[in-house]
Specification:
Elements (H helix, E strand, L loop, with lengths): L9 E2 L8 E7 L6 E6 L2 E6 L1 E3 L2 E7 L5 E7 L2 E4 L2 E3 L9 E3 L14 E4 L19 E2 L2 E2 L1 E2 L13 E2 L4 H6 L1 H7 L3 E4 L3 E2 L10 E5 L5 H14 L3 E6 L9 H8 L34 H9 L4 H4 L6 E4 L14 H15 L4 E4 L6 H5 L9 H13 L12 H14 L9 E2 L9 H4 L4 H13 L3 E5 L34 H16 L1 H5 L1 E4 L7 E7 L2 E21 L4 E16 L1
Parallel strand pairs: 11-16, 11-23, 14-15, 16-19, 19-20, 20-21, 22-23
Antiparallel strand pairs: 1-2, 2-6, 3-4, 3-7, 5-6, 7-8, 7-10, 8-9, 12-13, 17-18, 24-25, 25-26, 26-27
Helix pairs in contact: 9-10, 12-13
GO molecular function: hydrolase activity
Protein name: Glycoside hydrolase family 13 protein
Keywords: Glycosidase, Hydrolase
Amino acid sequence: MAHYHDLEHIHPPLPELGEEVTLYLETEAKEGLLLYEKDGEIHKKPMERAKGGLRVRVSVHASPFRYCFLLPEGFLGSHGLEKTLPRYDRFFHLLAGSLPPWWALGTVYYQIFPDRFRQGRPELSPKDGEWLLMGRPIRKKAWNEPPGPEGSWEFYGGDLFGILEALPYLEALGVETLYLTPIFQSPSSHRYDTEDYLRVDPHLGGEEALEALFQALEKRGMRLVLDGVFNHVGATHPWFQRALKNLASPERSMFTFYPDGSYAAFWGVKSMPKLDYASPLTQERFVHGKKAPIRYWMRLAHGFRLDVAHSIGEGGTNRKNARWLRALARAAKEERPEAIVFGELSYDATPTLRAHTLDGAMHYAGFAHPVMEWLSGRDVHGRPVHLDAQETWQVLWDHYQALPVQLRHSMYTLLSSHDIPRALWRLKGDVERFKLAYALLFAFPGSPAIYYGDEVGLSQPNPYAKWQGDPYCRAPFPWNESAWNLEVLTLIRRLVKLKRTHPALRLGGLLPLEAGKEVLAFKRRYRGQEVWAFFAPEGTRLTLPPGIDLVAEKEVAGEVETSFLLFQPV
């Protein structure tokens, strides 16, 4: 007997705290109970029969609201049927109140590293040796030069006016939301060492360029997400300089100093001293104050991605992490109610997201890592690993089911980023596997993210034996179209269009699909429509009913040989 419960079965899907919702379960069972946790007790409520299943109305008294179903054959929670009452972490988790805006569910992201995407005004570019970074002069590089080992010191001169010029290209690609790595004034090319949060870096075009970009995006119905580096500041920031030089300065409380004179820093990197959110001054300047950057820039952005969100906290640690993530997200939404705030949660995002903190997370643990391990045979650090299709599916399924139901489609789902090796490079240039990986990205639930250049086959200059992402994954975008892989570009344009227009791919739930041991397969379902997705790097033969190959836009039936297929039965 099949049972199915996902976002489409919750009405309204984004409830307020205390609001009544209808929960529906697709099932052949004729009777059942809703079990939910309240005040430490398990409460029971009978379900009534409805077309194709059972339903029940209940007040969402807490966030998260934890529940499961008791059916004649057992307990149904987020990990399927169990004979005994599941652990709470295997209940379904529903959130209420501040939730992702509807536009963000399934939105197509495009990530840009501003210095490396496009140069709009050459006169803005830093000059060779114009300043010292950690005691050494910066380098100005030609656009066609490959990135070298000194990534932070290397500037190519990309700017926000260049992104503005590229909007017709991005619009033709089908991108809905741009995510930019940091744009505020900083001495390095990556700009994660902020020295002024209220000033757009003049080498990127300043606030004038940001305003022009924001307005142009709004006219196109596109959105902008900025990078919020609120775990640490740059060591050149005046606040930290005052804290360092004057033991009596108010800013001293914003950082964590140790008895030996050292201080807490991001990964121990002294150029990025860590903020202490136990300090009322940190709270005022980053959360509550009018000029807190997460508030101040909401007039020119639709959201923030929080850098190293898993590390933000008090006393040089991540203590009270959930509290401060929640406060940062609330601050953004107080300025722009339709804002999205998601986090770089590099590991298991589930506990943080279940604590009703952010609107989603970068889906490393639940998508990027297992998929690339399966397809490349190496983990993100280059260590050999063997995952078969079924083992990969189990990781994807486990993370998906564990997520709060409303966040399953707002997860920033990715293959490449500025922090990890590019997918094409990890696959040793195997374009066919790369195409399969991107087809899987767009077929899977979530908000798919294209890392700039992936769509034209941009890779990395370092040899495979030298396993490293940053800085080599940050090469300039090749605007000479003769360098583009048009086959990849055509595929990704098609996948973007499918994600944007096909309800099952945009908002549909996830169901397993049997298709053989070496095939990763699943169904997406929304309001009776289904898409079947099949992925087999070595190729497979499928026997299918009549339907449509959505990528090739042609009718298929019977035996089909393929390495990947998005199929809509008719």
